[in-house]
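Q: Okay, next protein. This is NarK family nitrate/nitrite MFS transporter from Sphingomonas horti. I've checked the sequence twice, so it should be correct. Can you predict the 3D structure?
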Amino acid sequence: MATAIDRPAAGAGQVLWTSTAAFTACFAVWTIFSIIGLGVKDRLGLTETEFGLLIGTPILTGSLARVLLGVWADQIGGRRVFAAVMVLAAIATFLTSFAQTYGQLLVAALGVGLAGGGFSVGVTYVSKFYPANRQGTALGIFGAGNVGAAVTKFVAPFVMVAMGWQAVAQVWAAGLLVMAVVFLLLTREDPESAARRQEKRSAATMREQLSVLKNVQVWRFALYYFFVFGAFVALALWLPRYLIGVYKLDVESAGMLAAFYSVPASVFRIYGGKLSDRYGARSVLYVTFGISVFCTFMLSYPPTTYIVDGVHGPITFRTSMGLIPFLVTIFVLGFFMSLGKAAVFKHIPVYYPNHVGAVGGLVGMIGGLGGFVLPLAFGALNDITGVWTSCFVLLFVLVTLALTWMHFAIRQMERAAARKGTQAQVPELPEMQGLGEPGVAIPPRRAGPIADWRPEEPDFWLKGGRAVARRNLWISTYCLLLSFAVWMVWSIVVARLPGIGFGFTTDQLFWLAAVPGLSGATLRIFYAFLVPIFGGRLWTTLSTASLLIPAFGIGYAVQNPDTPYLIFLVLALLCGLGGGNFASSMANISFFFPKSEKGNALAINAGLGNLGVSLMQFLVPVVITMSLFGALGGQAQVAADGSRMWMQNAGFVWVPLVMIGTLAAWFGMNDLLTARSSFADQATIFGRLHTWTMCWLYTGTFGTFIGMSAGFPLLSKLVFPEKNALSYAFIGPLLGALSRAGSGWIADRLGGARVTFWVFIAQIAAIAGMLWFLEAHSFAGFFAMVLALFFVSGVGNASTFQMVPAIMRSEVDRTAAGLPEGERRLQSERESAAVIGFTSAIAAYGAFYIPKAYGSSIDLTGSADAALWGFMIFYLSCAVLTWAAYSGPGGLLRNLDHRPASAPRPALSA
């Protein structure tokens, strides 16, 4: 039940919405020069730098005034100061219509800028009506008044074309004056000012209000706002000019489309406040900066013409971002900037409840200065470099610095807290720990690392551990499914390329199908060790987001038949980012579950993750037959038979799904501090013979699954050209993924070594059947044997991973018998996770060598028989090794596999 102190003050709702409307009017006036500046630029012959100074001058005034206005709002009362700001800004805006020269316009712009100072006044005023646990949402709603920039972009161009730029200034001035009157009629004095007057207390002096600004952390906080708000304002001002210059639009269209950025960058600030209240502002800022780095990087790349010296002469091709992809990227950037703006201001009234005006004013001032400095810098960069996208290069550098600084500051504080054993007390923004006003408690972080994790203890597991582990498992599984889908997408795309005009040879096509396996396997070697270093939550977020690079790249490359083979080869290599994710995902999940459920959990994570291959092979052939994204997705390609295909959808279809996975990983997963270790701690696995033995065995199971997934579609098209094998290609990976996900319990109950041995015997039989039916040229029999191979490889994938924890526990007990039991258990868990990741890396090379073996066999002998005989010999060696080392009479796991099962834990359902 909420107490009185947890409820908003009387009249808070009316004050909030009226203040938001007033701030919207102020913001519309504050950004007016972004439109009327276009009306005078050509008439006065302004350079890009002069134009940038003109549209930035109001931003300068509004920014510099914020500190002083914020302090006055604390001292005099926000209601009075807010109304006075609106009246003065309205007068200055009206007088702007009489300016005739560039100098007069600059002076007028200084006065117009007072409208922007209303932000710090409003933050101070509104925050006093709400308790700390509601201020994030309340200030998010108030901050949505940024949408005033969109109002100006939508309406002002039409008024200017119809009546002239002077009329825009006069109409906007009248509207702001009316809003000031409405504000005074519908609002009341804030509770703090009313109480102070009733008690006849004097307000804090200016010096006292400004004293908190000596904290360097407040200035660092201001740096974050410099990007999320300053860059927003700068782009809101600059985009009309950018759209006219780059895409040759008229002023009305440019203003309308610029609003496409301003609206989400304003309205969704409300949602950012809700997210900050619920998940914590630090998490929101991490996502904001991470996505912004990606978006600004994409926007930074200028239109470029490449000339490659090819074997048969120069190869020329061109890359550029069209208008629609540009608008989509800008929309995404604006959306996440709006979340970040709310996250920054979530903390100010909580940490500094008695200095909201000063602190909020400073942070707002620095952010507003970004809106002044950056348009100037954009214009100067255009004049200096002559490259339109130089403005986004600057923003990319800025947000990368902000993200890096924030991350290392947070990690430093977390490490310091870990040394003191006070991780739970680390605040939302650890770099602000110990600061704030005296007597103000710093709120603990809601989400973050877990320091106490004891899954082997039944009470801990049943009272909360299982729920946390399952949540991490299902999010990890979803992200891994997308990783496999992007990793193997070339297995379908390459078979379609010749039909839409790409003249690649058979060998080149097999290379494209095989190269993602090569890069994915290589990346797994590194990914296997990164979870204990970075933390599972952060690494899963980053690795999932990295899938956007090949997804976008494929979508653009396949639309132009002149795209050179080299570009396709690079994109195929980048698809390996998805393959690398498996190692880190499995290593991460292995830490969450007890030994009795580890095999099943890993089977679910890997098995359902493997479903991404089947999902891709089923979904891509469907989506390329339709205009899935309309005009956003580009034009169709006409095939040789006259049919139309949208091959770009093979990449674009994953973009929204990857974005969802990235957000789910960041907001839903956890880091286990007990799993943290350095590379040196994990490197002990390289000295253990069992590590290399398990690499060999897992290559026989998973290498088969992923290699056949990559090679079967193209192999069947070449060996059985009369059959539409692509329609059935998804069935094998589906069967293998489901058998892996559903058979983990078999290895847990019967023993992983015994199951693995019989898997290899079954694989030998399946290869023999494939050879038989190839000789008989029977597609039905051949496909049945392929399905059998997929099924048993899935069972073997689960059983081999089930073996690893028992092997490593036995090894650690043997080689480190002097350590306490708890330390041996922790060391064996760390080594097990590292071995699982590393073996998955080595086995993933199957995605390279199996398609390449098929291609080489067909080129050299005219059939795939030689490759299949080689696979049979390899499986025979795996069966012998499993029997000798693990499942036979002298095997390490012989006694463990035959040990009576202890009381089972509740099963983890699939």
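A: Here is a summary of the prediction. The chain is about 75% helix and 0% strand. Residues 779-815 form the longest helix (37 residues).
Q: Noted. On to the next one.
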